[in-house]
Amino acid sequence: MKKKLSILCLLMVGVWFFTSCDTVKRFLSTDLEEEDYSLGELYVDEYVKEVPFVPTPSEEAKAEGRVNSLGIEREEGDNEALYDAIQSWIGTPYRYGGTTKAGIDCSGFVGNIYQEVYNKKLQRVANDMQQDCTLISRSELKEGDLVFFTNSKGRVSHVGIYLKNDIFAHSSTSRGVIISRLGDSYWSKHFYKGGRVN
């Protein structure tokens, strides 16, 4: 009797395990209409554990105080308010639908920064934010432009803010608010367009 009960329990656990995996796969491959950065959707083909960009300013720039609040070498014309605003969000965890420092998603982050730095209200969802922009190519990107990325279905599902020298700020599912490189293989592959806010 004990042996039959043990086999039955193992069978039930196995069924639950495989059903759960299937449920997770279905969730990750579902495009959620109301959310710009559908949790896991951007990473449905391969989960990317983010490796944040680590700035390495020159010793000369450090000695001269030409390093901004993000640790990036300051150049003439840089918008210090933008860098300071982003710095205040660095490390904030990702939260689906989040808009506060308790947790924020990608469009919530971009929307907050744009409201604070540029006093502009953007659409809430990344896909819709395109309506607030003139779409531009990667080679045309300038500080403060938006960068849009597509998911495996070709839909715009992620947004960040371009800084300079091929780096951008965004809220990633794996690391929260960080700085990343556009040239990283995953972001380069999924890059769609830049957007200059009208």
Protein architecture, described:
A hairpin with a 5-residue loop joins strand 4 and strand 5 (156-164). The longest helix has 27 residues, at 2-28. Helix content is 32%, strand content 21%. The chain folds into two domains: 1-30; 33-197, endopeptidase domain like (from Nostoc punctiforme) (endopeptidase fold (from Nostoc punctiforme)). The chain has six helices and eight strands. The protein is α+β, with helices and mostly antiparallel strands and 198 residues long. It is globular and about 45 Å long.
How much helix is in the residues? 25-40%
Radius of gyration: 20 Å
What amount of the residues lies in strands? 15-25%
Strand order of the largest sheet: 3-8-4-5-6-7
The tally of domains stands at: 2
Q: How many angstroms does the end-to-end distance come to?
A: 73 Å
> Biggest β-sheet: count, sense, barrel?
6 strands, antiparallel
| Rounded average pLDDT | 83
Helix tally? 6
Which architecture of the largest domain does the CATH hierarchy give at level 2? Alpha-Beta Complex
The CATH topology assignment of the largest domain is endopeptidase fold (from Nostoc punctiforme)
**CATH fourth-tier homologous superfamily of the largest domain:** endopeptidase domain like (from Nostoc punctiforme)
Name the shape in a single word: globular
β-strand number: 8
Give the H and E element order. Answer: HHHEEHHEEEEEHE
